[in-house]
Amino acid sequence: MMDGFGMPGGFGFGFGGLFMILWWVIIIVGILALVRWMSKSSGSDRSASSTSKSAMDILKERYARGEIDAQEYQKIKRELME
Question: What's this model's pTM, rounded to 2 decimal places?
Answer without folding.
Answer: 0.39
